[in-house]
Amino acid sequence: MKAQIAIWAGKTAGTLSKVMGNSGSTIPGVVARKVDGSFLHHLRKHTNTVVYITGTNGKTTTTNLIAHLLECSGKRIITNREGANMVTGIAAAMVHNAPLLGWAKNDVAVMEVDEASLPKAVSDCPPDYLVVMNFFRDQLDRYGEVDLLIEKMKDSLKTIDVKLILNADDPFVHRFSDLNKENVYVGLASNACQFPNYSVSESKYCPHCQSELTYSNIHFAQLGHYQCTCGFGRPRTDVSAEKVIQSPNGIRLVVDGEEYVTPLKGMYNAYNVLFAISLCKELEMTSSEIRKCLVKSQRADGRMQEFMINGEMWRLNLVKNPAGANVTLSEFFQSKQKKQLIFCLNDNLADGEDISWIWDIDLEMANRLEVESFIASGKRAHDVALRMKYAGIPEEKINIIPSLKQAVTHAKGKNTPAYIMATYTCLAPLVGILSEEQNLREEETFGADPVPLLSRYIKPIWGQRKYHLLNETVRMAWNQRSGRRNQEP
Ligand SMILES: [Zn+2]
Question: In 253-337, which residue ranges form alpha helices assigned H by DSSP?
Fold first, then answer.
């Protein structure tokens, strides 16, 4: 009965919050847990299999991928899709999923769990599977040291029966092996792919004896094939990507001899896809089912999201720590075309209030001729500008525009695409602003006959030989024809 009241209270609070104009993604969860302190227990009771996904980078994408694959195979799932990954976010997903009376019965709960929230989530609702992706320095003000965080997470798992899906390439993650659970080790073979010179800022020391680890192969940061003189080293993998190939349409992976294709772009998605494949195989999806569903997967908002603005393909990616920002910059500079770089930095609670991490970003790599202009934006635009200046970027190239909207408008005035990296709370407003700009263009274009459309888009195609421009033109023409203007093909 208490749980039922918690659901009703949560649903009411959610509706009220929406009426008042808040997106309110976690408010129903906060209220439900106030009414019923052990609300998460019910997830365990009413779900056959509970899966948690945790780690610093990539967990939203991986959670969405797993949820999509399982759903595609006909499983009933419950998930916290919006990336509301604290205990209240999980509770909110439960409130949202519950009917007015009683509980929905789900096959699998696929929950993204914030590293610091894992112990609480585990004690309230122990998972059957835990995917541990990676650990990078992230929002130190909230977490303290990575080592302490890992120990707390491990402590919470000691007494429960859980199968761990571990990143074999990350020495930090390998420390979960001490728990002596049933482990599935996942990793990239040494010559699987060439990550574009991601700079290394993570410590690479043995967790057992503190000696420096030796690497026969580094993928990026501390991820790779490592070994210590004391015997600690990369474990033998159970699931291995032998080859990862990037194409304009996404990435292709060869995993244990079988090929998988996904529309997700960016080399760093290789790990996300690999984790999703491994977990779904654990839940008895066949390779051919996974392959079939993977083709139809979509990336989450703001993850290397593309926007066609002024006939140019703009890109937007979430960053929240030095490792992620370095990966983003490297992806951005895969293309040598002229561009603008916008860095939007907020310091709200969800972004991390301590912004000192921007000094660990390898912004020096962005100081190149092809970047014609830099824009520092967001609440901490001035700090970004200072960091840019110390990266050796000429002052006359740096523009300080705290307003996101004005930053986009300024960038639109140039004839080069903008590549944008943004912290968490900048992301949703930017997706809104950029989508609006994109739709504006489509409406202007499609209001008239098809001739201006062709002249507008064909010119950049010849100028830049970009396949995706052609794709985009075809996509928009198709959507216009079938009246599905804003949907993905
Ligand atoms: Zn050692």
Answer: 269-282, 287-294, 322-332
